[in-house]
Amino acid sequence: MSEDTSPTRPAPAAPAAGAAHPSHRWRLPAMALLAAALAFGAWGLWRSFSGQDAPAPAPAGAAAATPRQMQAELEQLRQRVATLSRSDAISRQANRDLQSALAERDEEISGLRADVAFYERLVGATGQRRGLTVHALKMQAQDGAPSAWHFTTTLTQNLNRGAVSAGRLTLFLEGTRNGKLEKLAWTDLRQQADAPGVGYSFKYFEQVEGDVFVPAGLTPVRVTVRLVPQSGAAVEQSFTWADATREAAATTAEAGRSGT
């Protein structure tokens, strides 16, 4: 039998008495960490139940508003809202008044421009010379009296400058009633058998006004103005009822009732 000559390996040394196993090196720190976490959690629960985390009381002088103070503040807010509401209403009314004033000024300017054009044609050097003429007629219904109408006529003449035109003005009306054509004379429109015409007297122009009555049931179609001067032939000018009753800014000479 051959003898074993291979070197002999030393046997592993036995662990020294009291030496910890490697797996036990992290056991103690983990247990310590767990104990600390449990302690912190228990401390938090204790503060929650004991009221330690409740909000700190308001400092002295900052106590909650009393019902009286809240009522006073509410009243102040109501007064402020009322003041702002009145201010807004005043502003809106002022704006409406301004818009109305601007509209009136625009209408006035339009009327003045029409007057200027009228005067230029009447007395201007390049204006056409014409004898006695009915320049315009306006019929306006009277409030509260459906059959009553107020008429305004504008008479002109610039053929004989400086000469006075005088005479009488009357109206005639044509209309339909029950499918028939009717013609009403001046006496019919005035409801007076011997009604005289409206007098006029001017040099260049004049507005002549008066009132007439249109019978109920009559539909006016045409109105005729008849001028009977003191000397010379009569002059007649007809206008459709639609034109005579149309509101027109071109109705001239609103500023003056008679010319000189």
UniProtKB/TrEMBL annotation:
Phylogenetic lineage: Bacteria, Pseudomonadati, Pseudomonadota, Gammaproteobacteria, Lysobacterales
Full protein name: Transmembrane protein
Classification via Pfam families: DUF6776
InterPro entries: DUF6776
Chain residue ranges for the region called Disordered: 1-22
